[in-house]
């Protein structure tokens, strides 16, 4: 299948950013074993930059941040992302993985369904905030407050790249957390989709790279 592979950098803070150490990894089409492009390779230095951007996304604008946005607002973004680029993403997935196009198209349908599912759950969170808990003693009151846990690191495999990424990205964003995704190659296009729907900067960063150089620093990064 002849399809151009977009030239991308790391997706950090809403922008395409060259890796600080300028490392890249070739993309190989499994069906032809040809090198059809390359992707940026993040390192610990890039992980630190992305983590800081995610922290800012959760605390900026005096409360008008991703963590305190309503579930309805977050759902709007999830649905907007789901509506973008199905045919193009399916073709990229096929070239990257070597799977049949029909299977990739089915994966994209599942991606859309996943975003829709978590958009509904995000909307449902609005009705559950500060839910009272019944106690036997009337002198006491207790409430459950559902709050985002902060910055979340996500590492996903290659065999269903975008779908497996969305299994993690969608619930993370729906809950009001910021995410740093270390994915397989074609997931970088998710960054361009986020730009198209004006997802608040820093909410999602995408850092492909090798396990020891990008995955390990992300997994071992101090909690935010």
UniProtKB/TrEMBL annotation:
GO terms for biological process: cellular detoxification of aldehyde. The keyword Transmembrane helix does not apply. InterPro entries: Ald_DH/histidinol_DH, Ald_DH_N, Aldehyde_DH_dom. Its EC number is 1.2.1.19. It comes from the Eukaryota. One of its GO terms (molecular function) is aminobutyraldehyde dehydrogenase (NAD+) activity. PANTHER family: BETAINE ALDEHYDE DEHYDROGENASE, BETAINE ALDEHYDE DEHYDROGENASE-RELATED. Belongs to the aldehyde dehydrogenase family. It comes from Hibiscus syriacus (Rose of Sharon). Keywords: NAD, Oxidoreductase, Sodium. This is aminobutyraldehyde dehydrogenase. The keyword Oxidoreductase applies. Pfam families: Aldedh. It catalyses: 3-aminopropanal + NAD(+) + H2O = beta-alanine + NADH + 2 H(+); 4-aminobutanal + NAD(+) + H2O = 4-aminobutanoate + NADH + 2 H(+). Residues 16-222 form the Aldehyde dehydrogenase domain.
């Amino acid at each position: 299948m002849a399809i151009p592979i977009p030239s991308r950098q790391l997706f950090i803070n809403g922008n395409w950013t060259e890796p600080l150490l300028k490392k890249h990894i070739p993309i190989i089409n499994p069906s032809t074993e040809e090198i059809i492009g390359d992707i940026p390779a993040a390192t610990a230095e890039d992980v630190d930059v992305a983590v800081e951007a995610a922290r800012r996304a959760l605390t900026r604008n005096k409360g008008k941040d991703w963590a305190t946005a309503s579930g309805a607002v977050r759902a709007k973004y999830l649905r907007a992302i789901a509506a973008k680029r199905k045919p193009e993403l399916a073709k990229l997935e096929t070239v990257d993985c070597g799977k049949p196009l029909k299977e990739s198209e089915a994966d994209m349908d599942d991606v859309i369904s996943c975003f829709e599912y978590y958009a509904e759950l995000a909307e449902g969170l609005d009705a559950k905030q500060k839910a009272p808990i019944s106690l036997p003693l009337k002198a006491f009151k207790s409430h459950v407050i559902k709050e985002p846990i902060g910055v979340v690191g996500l590492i996903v495999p290659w065999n269903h790249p975008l779908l497996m990424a969305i299994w993690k990205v969608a619930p993370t964003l729906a809950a009001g957390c910021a995410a740093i995704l270390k994915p397989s190659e074609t997931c970088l296009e998710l960054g361009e989709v986020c730009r198209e729907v004006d997802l608040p900067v820093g909410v999602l960063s995408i850092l492909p790279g090798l396990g020891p150089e990008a995955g390990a620093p992300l997994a071992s990064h101090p909690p935010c």
